[in-house]
Structures are given as C-alpha cells and as structure tokens.
Amino acid sequence: MTKKIVLAYSGGLDTSVILKWLQLKFKCPVVTFTADLGQGEELKPVKKKAESLGVKEVFVEDLREEFVGDYVFPMFRANTVYEGAYFLGTAIARPLIAKKQIEIASQVGADAVAHGATGKGNDQVRFELGYYSNNPNIKVISPWREWELKSRSDLIDFAEKYQIPIPKDKRGEAPFSTDANLLHTSSEGKILEDPWVEAPEYVYSRTKSLENANPDSEEIIISFKNGDAVAINNNSLKPHDILTKLNTYGFNHGIGREDIVENRFVGMKSRGIYETPGGTILLKAHRALESITLDRGEAHLKDEIMPKYAEIIYNGFWFSSERLALQNLIDSTQKNVNGDVKLKLYKGNVMVLGRRSPNSRYNKSLVSFDQEGDYDQKDAEGFIKINSLRLKDFNKK
Most C-beta atoms within 10 A of its C-beta, which of 8, 16, 90, 319? Predict the structure, then answer.
C-alpha cells in the first residue's frame, strides 16, 4: 500500500490531471516538487495551483546554479552534441530533477515518486533510471502507462469533471508541446510532426529570426578556467549567470536554432525544434580554446568518445559507472583549458576572431613559413615514404 507520493509537477494540464488521478487512485497524500531550472514565467502560478488542488506539501526549488555548474558545464567540457545537432537540453535536466525528487521523498517520508512523461518518449526512461540510481527501492508510478486516459481531449474532460483549471491555450488540440530550461527550449508534436513542413515562426521563443536579429554585429570575449566559462568581457559571473548572459546575446543575434529529426532511445524517430542560444556560443568558444591548449592526441580522443558520452546522457545513464569514468577522463584534459576566446556574433553566426591562453601549445615559430624552428623539413620525406608503403602495396596493378 502506497503511503505518500512525490510528483514531479510542472503546473500544466498533464501533471495537474496526474495529481488529481494519483489522489483518487491511491487515496494518500501527494507532495509536489517543481524544479526551477530557469524556465521563467511558467513557474509563478505553480505553488498556488498545487495548493488549490489540495496539496499540503509543495516544494519549488531554485536549482539553476546546480543545474549549470554540476550538469551543463561538465557536459560542455566534452563538447557534447547528440547526433550532430542536439545539445541535450532536456536530457541533462532529468537526472537532477530525479535526484532532488528522491531527496524530497526521503525528507517527507514518501515511499513512491511519479512523473508526467508519456510512454512513447525518452523522459520516462531518464526519470526512472535517475530514481532507481538514487534509491533502488523506491516505487515508481508512471500514469501515462497505467491510466485509461488516451488523448488530450480525455485529459480536458477529466480536468473539467474535477474542476481543474485549464490554461486557455490548452483547450482543444494544443499546437505543440514544449520543454524549457536555462540551456534550451524544445518544441515537438502536432504541427511539427511532418518533417517536410517548415516550423512556423511562432514556435520560436528564445531566438529572434534572422530577419529580425540585430542589424549590427557584436564582439564578446569569454574567459575559461579548467574548461568552464568564468567571465564574459572580463566580468566574472556564476555559472547560471554566464549561461543567462549568453542566452541574451544568442536571442538578439538569432543564434541557436536547430530543426532536428532524432533517434529516440525507445526506438522511434522524432522531429523537434530546438533553441540553444547560449549553449551554441559556449560550445564554439570552448572548442576554439581547446584548439590551442589540447595536445592532438587528447583532442582527437575527446572527439572519438564524445558521441558515446552524448548517447549515455541522451539515454538517461547520467548516474552510470561508464558516464563517471568518461567524465573523469574528460575532466583530466581540461586542466590547461584556460584563457580567452574572442567571438563575433551576427545573424545566426558565431565566428571565432581570436584565442589566447597561458597554457597554449601553439608554437608560432614551428608553423611559420619564415622560420625553421625545431622542425627539419627534410624529415618529412622519410615520414611520407613510410606511410606510403601500404598504399603502394594496396594499389599495385
């Protein structure tokens, strides 16, 4: 018998219906937990709405600093991009929410947790792997896999029956669903399901269109220490303030839009519209600084393991031993990634203008056409001949 449930609660139609359904089905107290990851205005009514639905224990926690400092930044040290385009904005948020949800469950004496992810998506996997990693004995409730409600119209009917407030834009068929945090906004479903049809402009909320982007370019300098951004234009900032500031730059210059068809972990393809303004700028700057601070072997090894690291996060294995092992390897390469990167931002573009570091491995005298340095050009002849042996053998007529 379930004694108490902690629900990951957004305040939207789905989780509000789930809240009432849990109360009716399990006849036990339901605690709500809402993580403030920088999603903005939608957080304001959450506490009052939960209380209006009979919740006695409501948790709304500001996790922005932990989210960026302990999840986003470690991921960006690896230059992580899933399938060449997705910055994992939703995937990287789920393990933190799951961990905090389990902590609250322990705090309030709950023996179960619940989430609002559907049975077709990746988030059910991410949440539940996060739950079990932090409490192997927790009971997990996934209403979308259990209840009789099958569509949005069913949810609206349920909400009206139990007098659950319905946001005006949710009446009828919602045009698309969104997820937002400091790193990104993702939109998918309904009008976006046909991958041939261009996403309408109103889908975008975090970036100006190229037509409306700032008409003038802008230059900024991002400073790094041990692979993490620590200052913008010589102003030291906390991690979440860094990302917030970069988001503003990206918004104004139309940077960070991606239209993606991705391969979900559960086995289907999904089309999504992603906006990652600050993250797009940050990745470009980080790679630019690594280009002068990492040895070739380190740089190439990081590029080789990055897709695996991205897949691990995408699939929900943030708390796995393999992710921790890869993170230790990645972090060991970042001790010399210190310095500054100068960028120009203009009409959706992030252009590197310069990079400098006290730990730079760039040897001007070695590459200069005007100086020999420590390099004897005659040595290249033997190097080429040795490497040509197998090609000569393979291509014999």
Answer: 16
- Is position 14 annotated as part of the catalytic site? yes
Say whether 123 is catalytic: yes
Instruction: Read off the pTM.
Output: 0.93
- Read off the tokens for 386: 């040795």
> Is residue 235 included in any domain, yes or no?
yes
At 137-151, the pLDDT tens digits run 999 999 999 999 988
Read off the CATH number of the domain in which 76 is found.
Answer: 3.40.50.620
264 catalytic residue (yes or no): no
